[in-house]
Amino acid sequence: CCPFLDTSEAVRGAVIGIDLGTTNSCVAVMEGKQAKVSKGEIGRPHHPLRRHQPQNTLYATKRLIGRRYDDAEVQKDL
């Protein structure tokens, strides 16, 4: 399926993959050695919220994933 997935016996427990897209997101769960992709339209219901309640909407957060709390970019956004 995907060359970057580690499907070796060393992987234990549930493995979940998340693709945070600009318009939609996708979630997949490993079932054995196969990835099962969620068929839902995650993200679609939140588009009106972005336009009508911008003060309650997070945006441009993907660039902060994986950064430490004390990272300069994170501190700048605080």
UniProtKB/TrEMBL annotation:
Gene3D superfamilies documented for this protein: 3.30.30.30, 3.30.420.40
Annotated signal sequence range: none
GO MF: ATP binding; ATP-dependent protein folding chaperone
Keywords assigned by UniProt, alphabetized: ATP-binding, Nucleotide-binding
One Pfam match: HSP70
Coiled coil: none
Xref: InterPro entries: ATPase_NBD, Heat_shock_70_CS, Hsp_70_fam
Family membership noted in the UniProt record: Belongs to the heat shock protein 70 family.
Name by which UniProt lists this protein: Heat shock protein 70
Organism, as annotated: Neogobius melanostomus
